[in-house]
Amino acid sequence: MINIYEVSETNKMIEKENLDVRTITLGISLLDCIDSDLEQLKSNIYSKIHEAAKDLVKTGEKISREFGIPIVNKRISVTPIALVGGAACKTPEDFTSIAQTLDQVAKEVGVNFIGGYSALVSKGMTSADEMLIRSIPAALSVTERVCSSVNLGSTKTGINMDAVRLMGNMVLQTAELTKENDSLGCAKLVVFCNAPDDNPFMAGAFHGVTEADKIINVGVSGPGVVKTALEKVRGENFEILCETIKKTAFKVTRVGQLVAQEASKMLGVPFGIVDLSLAPTPAVGDSVADILCEIGLEYAGAPGTTAALALLNDQVKKGGVMASSYVGGLSGAFIPVSEDQGMIDAVTAGALTLEKLEAMTCVCSVGLDMIAIPGDTKASTISGIIADEMAIGMVNQKTTAVRIIPVIGKGVGETVEFGGLLGYAPIMPVNPFSCENFVNRGGRIPAPIHSFKN
Amino acid sequence: MKKTIITVVGKDTVGIIAKVCTYLADNGINILDISQTIVSGYFNMMMIVDTGESGKAFGEMADELEETGRQIGVSIKCQKEEIFDQMHRI
C-alpha cells in the first residue's frame, strides 16, 4: 500500500515544485465539415467543435479536483484550416472569417487557445494554402484565442523556400497589425519543419489528417520537479545525474498518462498520446534554464549548454517512454525565452545569444521559441532565420520550429511584456548582414540524401 | 472499493484525528490505514479510506473536509489513490 513518504513526495512536487499537467488538448477533425458554401462551412465547424468540446473544461476541472493535480490549460486543435476551407474560400478574407468562427466557439466552450489555423506546405502550396498564409496577419489581429502554424519543410520533402520567403513577410505583417499589443500576434504564430500531427502544445497544435475523428492528447510538464531532484545529487557523476532525471521524468509522465486516460474515459474520446515535454513558465522555479544551471552551468548559454541540454532531453525521453505506451507530440525540453525566467536572466546577463539558441535547438525538442527581436528587422532576415532552423530539422530528422516576435517600435535593450504564460522578454540583437539574395532565389531546397530510405 | 488518500497537514492541536474520524464515520467512509508523524511541531497525517460505501460525491466530500480543516486550522486534502499508485508503482 502507498506510504506517507510517497504521498508527501507527490504532494510536495505539486505544491512546491510546480508539477502540473500543462494541457489537455482535444483534437477534432473538421474534414466532415467541408462545404463549398462558406456560411454553411462555418456553421458546420461551429456545431462540430461546440458539440465535441462542450464538456472539455468541466472534465478537466473534475480530474484536477479528484487527483489534486493542477491542469493548467484545456485546449482544442483542429484539422489544418487550409484543407477544410479550400472548397469554400475564394479570398484571404474568407479564411479570416473562419478564424473568427474558431475564436467564437473557443470562447463559447471556455478553452484558452484553439490551434489549427494552419497550412501544410512542406513541398508546395495550393492556392488555398497560399490564401490561408496571406490571411494569417489579419486573422491573428482580429481574434484572441486562435493559434496559427505552417509546416514549411520536412526530411522527406526538403524545404519549401517560396513559403519560407512568404512567412518572413507574414511574421512581420502580423507584428505590424498587432503593434498596439507589443506585436503579440506573433506569439500565436509558429512555423515548423517536420511538424507532428499530434502535438498538444500551442501555438503549434493542429489535428493531423492521419488522426481519428476526435482524440485526447495530454502535455505534461515539471521542470521544477527535475531541478529539485537534481539539487540532491550536486557534484555526483553523469551516471547518477542521468538516473535522477530519468526517474523524475518517469513519475511526471505517469501523472500525464493517468490524466489522459481519465479524460479519455469521461469524454468518451480515444486517448492519443502523452507529450512528455519539460515546458517552463515564467513562474520562479518552473524553468528549464535553471535545470541547466543545476547541471553545472553559471548561466544557460555558457559553453557546455548544448551538451547539457542534449543530455537532459535524452533522459527525459528515456524516463518518459517507459511511463506511457503512447508517447508523441514534441516530447523533450522546451527552450522558449520569454516563458522561462532563467532564460530571460541569461539573455539579460549577456550569456545567451540567438546563435547559441540556434545551436541548442539541434538537440532539444522544438526550436527558436518566443524570442523578441527588433521591430525594424527585415522580412528577408526573418526568412533567413527560419530557413536555418528548417535546415536543422530537415537534416537531423527532428521537429524544429520558429516563433519569433519582431516588436514594432522597439529595439535592442528594451523589454517587451506579453503577460500571463507568455511572459516577458528582452529584445535580442539579430545578425545585421543581408541574406536577401539567398531568400529571393525561389523554389525549394531538395530533401537530404538520407531521406531516401526505401 | 474506491480508495482515497486524505492528507492532513498543520500545527498540532487537540482533537485533529477525532474531528476527521467523526466526519468519516458520519458519512459511511471506512478507514483502511492511518500513518501520522509530527515534524518540528507540525502535524502530518495520511489516511487511506474506502469511499465505496459512502453516498457522498467525491467533490462534496473533498469540500466538506477542507472546510472541517479550516475550522481547526489545518489543511485537509483528498486525492484519489491512482495518482500515487501511478507515480510510485510500476
What would a concise description of this structure say?
The complex is a heterodimer of chains A (454) and B (90). Chain A is α/β, with parallel strands linked by helices and 454 residues long.
Provide a descriptive summary of the structure in words.
The complex is a heterodimer of chains A (454) and B (90). Chain A is of the alpha/beta class and 454 residues long. Helix content of chain A is 44%, strand content 17%. Chain A has helices spanning 4-16, 38-53, 56-67, 81-85, 92-109, 127-142, 161-177, 223-231, 238-267, 288-295, 305-323, 341-348, 354-360, 379-396, 436-439, and strands at residues 21-28, 71-78, 113-120, 146-154, 158-160, 189-193, 214-220, 271-275, 368-374, 400-407, 415-417, 424-426, 444-445. In chain A, strands 1, 2, 3, 4, 5, 6, 7, 8, 9, 10 and 13 form an eleven-stranded mixed beta sheet that branches. In chain A, strand 11 (415-417) and strand 12 (424-426) form a beta hairpin. Chain A starts with a helix and ends in a 9-residue tail after the last strand. The mean pLDDT of chain A is 94. Chain B has 90 residues and is α+β, with helices and mostly antiparallel strands. Chain B is built from three helices and four strands, in the order E-H-E-E-H-E-H. Chain B has helices spanning 16-26, 58-72, 82-88, and strands spanning 3-11, 30-39, 42-50, 74-80. A four-stranded antiparallel beta sheet of chain B has the order 2-3-1-4, sandwiched between helices. The model of chain B has no long low-confidence stretch (mean pLDDT 91). The interface between A and B is medium-sized, with 21 and 25 residues.
